[in-house]
């Protein structure tokens, strides 16, 4: 039936999306060298040891930031955590423990779900050894490199110890109708998606270019399955300046 869900949570720019792409073997989630790239929830499947679980990437969280976009990112991460069986908390091992990590640790300790720390950017023995400090938070720690793909299997093995799989007797039949919502920036594509689904699936704000990734949602209506895809607003060529937006324009095609 439904595969278990695992949520990726972390501070901005620590490599949440790089790890998501590595685990799902995709390039679904946009990666960039600046904080605040991911905003909405990005879903993908992970296959490991002949079993499948669902993974959700979330935007880097800053719990006490009440500016409109960060506050909404935090809310979206909360939706992912609510539905997840287990959490992968990504930290930047090169940076070491930050005040934001302390804050996130308190938040994650209170949710009562298994949390696994992925100590990312461990590409030297020195950083790997220093990553041991994250054990102080009381969760399991796997030093790894999402970019280089090292020790990813160790993290997956740890997750498999806690995930509960239902019988995967039914295989998905692909009678799904795929619908993409496209249009210029700020015309109301995400509002339309949220209205159809009856939930706050994507962040809506008056700021043009709020949606960056392509947002997939599976749903059923009167027995018919749909895959609804909200896309980043497509601008005229040459007018888009932000790197992140450029990337999402490409992915929206
Ligand atoms: N050295 C190194 N760099 C990494 C690794 N993983 C990610 N990065 C880099 O870190 C930066 C941020 O990566 P993202 O995956 O976009 O980070 P994120 O946590 O999703 O960031 P936001 O969505 O903006 O919150 C990019 O420049 C990546 O190339 C890693 O394992 N090693
Ligand atoms: Mg990201």
First CA to last CA: what distance?
A: 31 Å
**How would the global form be characterised?**
globular
Return the CATH architecture of the largest domain.
Answer: 3-Layer(aba) Sandwich
Number of helices: 7
Main β-sheet description: 6 strands, mixed
Class computed from helices, strands and strand pairing: alpha/beta
Describe this structure in words.
It is a single chain. With about 250 residues, the protein is of the alpha/beta class. It has two domains: about 5-160, 3-Layer(aba) Sandwich (Rossmann fold), CATH 3.40.50.300; about 175-250, 3-Layer(aba) Sandwich (Rossmann fold), CATH 3.40.50. Helix content is about 25%, strand content about 20%. The chain is built from seven helices and nine strands. The protein has helices spanning about 15-25, 70-85, 100-110, 125-130, 150-160, 190-195, 245-250, and strands spanning about 5-10, 40-50, 50-55, 85-90, 115-120, 140-145, 175-180, 215-220, 225-230. The longest helix has 16 residues, at about 70-85. It is globular and about 50 Å long. The mean pLDDT is about 90. Guanosine-5'-triphosphate binds near residues 14, 17, 59, 60 and 147.
Structural features:
Rossmann fold; 253 residues; 7 helices; single chain; binds guanosine-5'-triphosphate; 3-stranded mixed beta sheet; alpha/beta; binds magnesium ion
What's the short story on this structure?
The chain is 27% helix and 22% strand. The chain contains 7 helices and 9 strands; from the N terminus they run βαββαβαβαβαβαββα. The chain has helices at residues 16-24, 68-83, 99-109, 125-130, 152-160, 189-197, 243-251; strands spanning 5-10, 42-48, 51-57, 86-92, 115-120, 140-143, 177-181, 215-221, 224-230.
């Amino acid at each position: 039936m439904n595969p278990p869900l695992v949520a990726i949570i972390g501070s901005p720019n620590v490599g949440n999306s790089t790890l998501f792409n590595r685990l799902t073997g995709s390039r679904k989630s946009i990666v960039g060298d600046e904080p605040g790239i991911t905003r909405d929830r990005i879903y993908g499947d992970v296959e490991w040891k002949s079993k499948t679980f669902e993974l959700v990437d979330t935007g880097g969280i800053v719990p006490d930031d009440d500016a409109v976009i960060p506050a909404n990112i935090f809310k979206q991460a909360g939706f992912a955590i609510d539905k997840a069986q287990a959490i992968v908390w990504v930290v930047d091992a090169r940076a070491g423990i930050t005040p934001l990590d302390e804050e996130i640790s308190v938040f994650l300790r209170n949710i009562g779900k298994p949390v696994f720390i992925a100590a990312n950017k461990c590409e030297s023995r020195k950083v790997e050894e220093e990553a041991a400090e994250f054990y102080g938070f009381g969760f399991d720690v796997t030093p790894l490199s999402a970019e280089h793909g090292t020790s990813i299997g160790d993290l997956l093995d740890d997750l498999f110890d806690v995930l509960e799989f239902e019988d995967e007797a039914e295989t998905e039949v692909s009678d799904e109708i795929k619908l993409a919502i496209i249009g210029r920036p700020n015309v109301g594509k995400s509002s339309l998606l949220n209205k159809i689904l009856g939930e706050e699936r994507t962040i809506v704000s008056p700021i043009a270019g709020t949606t960056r990734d392509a947002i997939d949602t599976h749903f059923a209506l009167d027995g018919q399955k749909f895959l609804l895809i909200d896309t980043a607003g497509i601008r005229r060529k040459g007018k888009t300046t932000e790197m992140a937006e450029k990337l999402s324009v490409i992915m929206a095609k």
